[in-house]
Amino acid sequence: MKATELRALPYLFDFWALGHQVPPAGDWRTWVILGGRGAGKTRAGAEWVRSMAEGSRPRDPGPARRIALVGETMDQAREVMVFGESGILACTPRDRRPRWIAGRQMLVWPNGATARVFSAHDPESLRGPQFDAAWADELAKWPKAAAVWPMLQFGLRLGRRPRACVTTTPRRVSALTDLLARPSTVQTHAPTEANRAYLADTFLEEIMAEYAGTRLGRQELDGVLLSDVDGALWSTAGLEAARVDAAPDLDRIVVAVDPPAGQGAQADTCGIIVAGACTQGPPRDWRVVVLEDASVQGCSPMGWAAAALRAMARHGAERLVAEVNQGGAMVESIVRSLDDTVPYKAVHAGRSKAARAEPVAALYEQGRVAHLRGLGELEDQMCQMTAQGYAGTGSPDRVDALVWAITDLVLAPARAHRSPRMRTL
């Protein structure tokens, strides 16, 4: 290989790029790159800008002549998107590198293409300019995204195929969710782990130890768009506040099961939740720790019953609690066909899922329920359960099992402790 080819190799992004950093094929208008912290989103955005601004040779025209660079603030746009370690200047070889004109907050390429920097704090600054390409960084953090994004779209009107690239760690804000729902939007996704070759080992060790298996970690490391909805009985912030690294000594442990409707690959998930309680002192002092989400999907009745019994054995649970609305006596017969000595309690749902969940949510508000790590899918469902019902897709099987577990551990015994006079009020 020639010396000139070796010098060019670091700038051949098509050779180095990870899958989520490559623009999808097709006639899209907006490409959204969702990723965890350090997943390579900035590099992908900078390289996409290069691909739009540059031609085959340094002075050949590229697909775009006027480009918008929009960051949360002017400083962040300049220091990350332009001058950052993965920004445009760092990614561009010397013979193609654009000049930075500080007075105009603008990059100018040797072929005459330009890129102007804008702040998402100032939607009016986008009124008037027009572009044939745009890179929007950390859209989910923009404080005025609902105003800035439409202004950017109005200006994206030059050329044959005006396009935008959005690089962001996901947050459930309307500007992002609405954008993802459009048929002209495509997306790629990657967790932080995907880019580990370019990250310090100590960073991954520390950040994973602190946040892996948490709901915040699912957002910031896995790049998952979490599903908090307005009016939800639980919130991400509340669940993060309930996080503990280890359970205390527990007086009782139960496994609760919400059997699925149907069986086989198309069946709903069978919710299986393990929880334990400290029940010393009066009921108002009792505390619960949710230990494991052992839910399974696509299993036969014998499959999910076996999974529930294995969860009991792992945690030394005293009782299996199962909702029997779907299967009646059949649920118990399936469980006992595998273990005829298992302590078993059948529960019937006489009220809606939301009505049953509200007293459990109140215990969380009182700080009486804690979560171990690794409950991300359960917590996703919890943040979509409202007083009016479940706002997610499918059935909240995991939440239903959680409610039965905590009801059996705390709520039902507390009701039994009340005086006869209180029970009649």
Oligomerization category of the chains in this entry: single chain
Name the shape in a single word: elongated
The average pLDDT value, as a whole number, equals 89
What portion of residues belong to β-strands?
15-25%
Please work out how many helical segments DSSP would assign: 16
Structural class by sheet pairing and helices: alpha/beta
The CATH H-level superfamily of the largest domain is P-loop containing nucleotide triphosphate hydrolases
β-strand number: 16
Strand order of the largest sheet: 3-4-5-2-6-7-1-8
Query: What characterizes the major β-sheet?
Result: 8 strands, mixed
Main CATH class of the largest domain: Alpha Beta
| Estimated radius of gyration | 27 Å
Helix content: 25-40%
Q: Distance between termini?
A: 87 Å
Number of domains: 2
Q: Examine the coordinates and then state which fold CATH places here, giving the name of the CATH topology of the largest domain.
A: Rossmann fold
CATH A-level architecture of the largest domain = 3-Layer(aba) Sandwich
Low-confidence stretches: 421-425
